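WARN no homologs supplied; continuing
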Amino acid sequence: MIIRTKEELKLYLDRAVVQAEAMLGFGKPVKITVELAKKLRSKEQNRFMWAVFQHIADFYLDTGFMPDSLQSKIQFFNKDVAKTWFSAKYGYKHTSLLNTKDMSEFLEAVQRDMLEQSQGEYAPIYPEDIYTGDEYAK
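OK structure emitted
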């Protein structure tokens, strides 16, 4: 849980104390951790991620190219397959848990990988190509 105000902290701690006392009452050990919240990927990064994977799927439709010889492993290719494939390749189970820096690095690596594997045929896209502010550019 991310806490931003003293009021939120007090409410959370009141509930946590009640829960911890109940657990201790049943002989269950309790672990309490406090850590600095990392800024998770932004909404814009999420939109851009899906645009990148759609761009990769469109590239497949235009050229028939699939990354890392996926052709022999799957029967269809779309943005969801691309996201799943690259997330697993780079060791991310859930991109929603990436912070903004890691998300940027992930998307750069995906597009660099596509560019290299396609021997320069894939044309990377950039956030400013996709949307301005909260709206997609048409």
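Residues 48 and 54 are 10 Å apart (CA to CA).
OK
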